[in-house]
Amino acid sequence: MLSYEATTTINTRPEAIWNILTDAPNYPNWDPNMIRLEGVIAKGNQVKAFTKLDPNRVFPATVTVFEPNKHMTWSGGMPFGLFKGVRTFDLVPEGDQTKFTLREEFSGPLLPLFGRTIPDLTQTFEDFVAGLKSQAEQS
User: Fold this and answer.
1) Per-residue pLDDT averaged across 4-14, rounded?
2) Distance in angstroms (rounded) separating the CA atoms of residues 131 and 100
3) With contact defined as beta carbons under 8 Å apart, do 52 and 80 qualify?
4) How far is CA 101 from CA 55, 87, 129, 131, in A?
5) Per-residue pLDDT reduced to its tens digit, 53-106
6) Which domains does the chain have, with CATH numbers?
7) Distances (CA, A) of 53 to 95, 105, 110
8) Of 5, 30, 96, 113, which has the fewest beta carbons less than 10 angstroms from its beta carbon?
9) Model pTM above 0.90
10) What confidence score (pLDDT) does residue 54 get?
């Protein structure tokens, strides 16, 4: 398995962060690596991410878990689990603050082949949580 994770504490309640996380058209306003995010972020729906990491490629994912103000999971990959990416968004209230964690795990029998093509996403994840924090604290 290959994984990336970034965590931050945001000075606002989970509801405010959730509103930002589920507003697909506005991702480019705060996520510095997002060109656009298409789709409606709701359980069972597909979203399509167009990122600066590879502007000529679309990254489709299905929203598989949707627990408002708490947890969301996006899953994508190849049929039969040959290669899979699972991105989780976790919000944990801590008084007037929220601990937010973004994590993605890549797995499957073809991971040794495809894993070599995945760039180091550490900075991308850190940029995401920093952008989300900034956006949430300005609201």
Assistant:
1) 98
2) 12
3) no
4) 25, 10, 8, 13
5) 888 899 999 999 999 999 999 999 999 999 999 999 999 999 999 999 999 999
6) 2-138 (3.30.530.20)
7) 36, 18, 21
8) 96
9) yes
10) 87
